Amino acid sequence: MRGAADELALTHGAVSRRVAKLSKDLGITLVRRDGRGVALTPSGEKLAQVAQQALGLISDSVTDLRLGDKSAPIVISCERSVAMRWLISRLTWFQDLHPDIPVHLSVGGGRLNFAKDGVTLAIRRMDFPVDPDWSVETVFSESMGPVMQPSMIAAFRSGDYIGLGARTRPEAWSNWLTQQSDIKGPREVRLFDHHFLMAEAAASGLGVAMSPKIVSIDDISRERLVAPCGFASDDTNYGLIYPRSPKLSVDTVTLIKWMKGIFESVH
């Protein structure tokens, strides 16, 4: 019940009432008391299995229809900061090479439902359970490091600076500093909602950002930011994710091959 409530963005009570109403409408007992919780009855188990198979068939059929529609765009779902600070500018390269393949970009993070969300491919930091029906190809390893305006290097070396971080990884500074024996920590840490906001704040001189390499790599190449300590792996990876079934379209395979190639520049 709790899992269903989380998935549907409903309260536990609302899910319980819906299950009770379904049971009443069908005239079948679907759940029974089991200690402090509930369990499916044999009838409930059978209905759940059949419903899952039916929904899976609908999902596959919708995906097949989308793939069969040559005018339908390939939709990439990408985490916000990676999309805004790195991927968007590079998608123009693909469109120049393949003007006949429409590609749309959607931003989001964590788990997703490919059929429900209308997504073809997803780029995610792999810090959540993987659905067994997904194919996941690791495209680059995450690495973190402090980035700043060139004028702030002296303040960084002396420890007289504000550390900038993201709310999605509030321990990033402390985790990085435990690996450094000769770096003085910031006098305070300020957190932003997203890494792209944090990186822009660093580029504006507000402080020193603990940034993923992919978020700052373009500003470093433009000398807008510097990374005097380089970047250290945080033992996580980003994956390119897509459903195992149905078979990918030729256009999607072309896009995947191209994306794997451009991700090599992040290493």
Number of domains: 3
With strands numbered from the N-terminus, the spatial order across the biggest sheet is 4-3-5-10-6-9-7-8
Q: Describe the biggest sheet?
A: 8 strands, mixed
Number of helices: 10
What class do helices, strands and sheet pairing give?
alpha/beta
Q: Kindly state the number of beta strands.
A: 10
Which outline best applies? flat
The CATH architecture category of the largest domain equals 3-Layer(aba) Sandwich
Q: N- to C-terminal separation?
A: 43 Å
Radius of gyration, CA atoms, in whole angstroms: 23 Å
CATH class category name of the largest domain: Alpha Beta
Mean pLDDT score, rounded? 90
CATH superfamily of the largest domain: Periplasmic binding protein-like II
What CATH calls the topology of the largest domain is: D-Maltodextrin-Binding Protein, domain 2
Helix content: 40-55%
SSE run = HHEEHEHEHEEHEHEHEHEH
Tell me the strand percentage band. 15-25%
Task: Summarize the structure in words.
With 267 residues, this protein is α/β, with parallel strands linked by helices. It has 3 domains: 2-67, Arc Repressor Mutant, subunit A (Orthogonal Bundle), CATH 1.10.10.10; 68-141 and 237-266, Periplasmic binding protein-like II (D-Maltodextrin-Binding Protein, domain 2, 3-Layer(aba) Sandwich); 143-234, Periplasmic binding protein-like II (D-Maltodextrin-Binding Protein, domain 2, 3-Layer(aba) Sandwich). Helices cover 43% and strands 24% of the residues. The chain has helices at 2-8, 12-26, 42-68, 80-97, 114-117, 153-158, 172-177, 195-203, 213-221, 250-263, and strands at 31-34, 37-40, 74-78, 103-107, 121-125, 134-147, 162-166, 188-192, 208-212, 232-243. It has an 8-stranded mixed beta sheet with strand order 4-3-5-10-6-9-7-8, sandwiched between helices. It has a two-stranded antiparallel ribbon with strand order 1-2. Helix 4 (80-97) crosses helix 9 (213-221). The longest helix is centred in the N-terminal third of the chain and has 27 residues, at 42-68. The mean pLDDT is 90.
